[in-house]
Design brief:
By secondary structure, the protein is α+β, with helices and mostly antiparallel strands. The longest helix has 44 residues, at 284-327. Strands 1, 2, 5, 8, 9, 10 and 11 form a seven-stranded mixed β-sheet that branches. The protein has a two-stranded antiparallel sheet with strand order 3-4. A two-stranded antiparallel sheet has the order 6-7. The N and C termini lie far apart (128 Å). The chain is elongated and about 115 Å long. The protein has eight helices and eleven strands. A hairpin with a 3-residue loop joins strand 3 and strand 4 (79-86). Helices cover 34% and strands 26% of the residues.
Amino acid sequence: YGFLSNDHYASTKNHTWQAANISSQDLFEKSTFNADELISSVYMRAIRADEDGTTGFRPKPGEQSDEAQWTTQYHRGFGRCHSLYPGKKIKKLGIYYMTIYGAEDVKMYLHYQGQFLDLSGRMGVKVYRNYTIEMQATWMSISMLSEQIKTVQKGFKCNNRMEYNACIYQKLDQYIRKGTSTGCTVPYMPNNTKICKTQADRDAAFKIHYSRITNQAGDCPNPCNFLLMTLGGQNRAERTDDKFKVMLYFQSKTMINEESLLYTPLSLFAEIGGYVGLMMGFSIFHIAELISSVIERKIRSYEKKLEHEIEIRDTMSSRFDTVSKISH
């Protein structure tokens, strides 16, 4: 379609996004890869066997199943990327290792689900055809408290109200469409039904996307749950079949670092009450009795006052009757 390289399509200085006799959307689709074009096959070896005694599974690239869930991601340099998440079945059985065969040179990222765009949660490894790579993947799962729960707003701030990728894409779509004269956007977005055509709109859309895609403007809160990942023990060997092979070995146990409140309001109140009762022999029941006795004294005082007023009124009424009789 007249593009000599990727730099002629989506670089910082030359982002055309159009070609003759094809729509902008079709051009983006044809210029990028489907999952099954990048990955020839996937093999997952589970730690435990399923009900049929099976430990090996072969999910088809790009097809949703209980074994694998695929999500399309969008990237300015790579176009369409494809995230592979273990399905319900594999999560239940646990993964021992995964083998991936591919027909193109790729860059692989390991990231927390829904956090492809979060720079702290992914690790990129270049994989070339005619090479086999074996790697050990280790990680620590981090779970932080949302800023809405914390009573003191300091340190790391995060929020789990929306998935990180979804938040970034949503904010980008809003700012890009608002910042262009025709409400258009860049092609490497989930909603690219209206790709910019004029040079001015392409430049504006590109600049907004480029300056916000990694959350440089703080459009979205940090995710509270994420992974600290390490890829180690890489073994490499040459191949001759014009394909790559990646073997990822996964740890069977996960270390979890979880932030929690020292005291909830209820536990703090209970703790204070317990110490007061221990040190002073005083408890909430004593407070209730004290309040009750004060109220009872007030009631008795009011009753006595009322009785006294009634006696005075009766006495005055009797005297008036006596005076009336004498006068008569």
